[in-house]
Amino acid sequence: MSRRILIVDDEPGVRAALAQLLEYEGYEVRDASSGAEGIALYEKFRPQLVFLDVKMAGMDGLETLKRLREFDPAAIVVMISGHATIQNAVEATQLGAYDILEKPLDTDRILVTLRNAVGRIDLAEENARLKATIESRYEIVGRSAVIHALTDKIEKVAGTSARVLISGENGTGKELVARALHRGSPRARQPFVEVNCAAIPSELIESELFGHMRGSFTGAVADRAGKFEQADGGTLFLDEIGDMSSSAQAKVLRVLQDGEVTRIGGLKSRMVDVRVVAAPNKRLEDEIEAGRFREDLFYRLNVVPNHVAPLRERREDIPLLVEHFLLQLAKHDGVAPRHIDPLAIDRLTAHDWPGNVRELRNTIERLVILSAGPRITVADIDRLVGMRASATGGLGGLESSRTWEEFKLAAEKVFLEAKLREHDWNVAETARVLEMPRSNLYKKIERHGLARRSE
């Protein structure tokens, strides 16, 4: 699709010559002989770029520019003048002009200005597309009562500075809630900074959160701002906060109380304005009772509790999520969306989804990649995912075990295989989630002869 350009000039010769050049370069061009006519045409034509004469009878170019920018603050306007002065240039720039060209117009200068302006337009449109893609990725999808209650709460809380503690099982979408709170807040244009407390070694978490000064410890080769400083003015999302070390908890509490951060090895504190949203990966009340989490920090964070329900408690959302992921994956790959049979939707809806929305999305991606036909069918789900037992109910054949010990071993095998598959056969991550020593998990994998099947 060609770019649209509007020329506003009271000299017919200038309009004709400029239009001829621009049309030759492949642009769609309209022209107007006065400021008033240009404004009226702008509203109908909606050009991406305007060439606007400074000196015109009636409404001059600077006044026209001012009105155009009031109507469309993003308007890109190049001024043209036969008597350009520094004062004209300064005033036009202050009013938002992109550039100013002198008459007689030079073809090479016009083309250079045009190329630069169109590059800026392309960049702005690409940024808008990327933003739309990101928004789609982090969209909360669902029409169940629990999702309506969740989004209503987000709307009420987002506009405040209240701290929010988001609870829920792994994979339910706690990060989506945190991003929705940020997006709906007055801080939306400021940074959203995420920290996964479980992924950072305990000896490094304080440096990550609060920053450090050069030479404060081995490897500190330069001054470095921590996540609190990076999130200044915006939102800091502390994910899996239950794994934060006791020392880091004490420092986070101090920041929440005083609004000041001191880098490791530093003497001077810095004021920060950060909204903290946190999500635990375990029940914090149990961690407090066990002495692993500070009760005072819990109360500081738990100003507004927000729970995200597991997928098995909102099955009516599964068909919507399936269609959402199919569309999302198609956009990512630049292909037409795949279709899925109603019976296949029913099979997916009947599953318990222990890995919640994350597991569902990974399953849909697997089906899109590996299913052979034009539509995803129940047979594809049975072949590629293996949900037959959970979809049809019962114990999936375990009830045929002859003894209690045989049943326990068979159930353990099914459970461990499901958990390994949920975590893409990452033994370390599976052991962490199951709160089991990795060596024990390896022994059980060997005992049951578990192995990743090619699909």
Description:
Strand 11 (260-262) and strand 12 (269-271) form a beta hairpin. The strands form five sheets. This protein has a five-stranded parallel sheet with strand order 2-1-3-4-5, sandwiched between helices. The chain has a five-stranded parallel sheet with strand order 7-10-13-6-14. It has four domains: 4-133, Response regulator (Rossmann fold); 145-309, Rossmann fold; 312-392, Orthogonal Bundle (Helicase, Ruva Protein, domain 3); 398-448, Arc Repressor Mutant, subunit A. The chain is α/β, with parallel strands linked by helices and 455 residues long. The chain is 49% helix and 13% strand. The protein contains 20 helices and 16 strands.
What attributes characterize this protein structure?
455 residues, alpha/beta, Rossmann fold, Helicase, Ruva Protein, domain 3, 4 domains, five-stranded parallel beta sheet, 20 helices, 16 strands, 49% helix
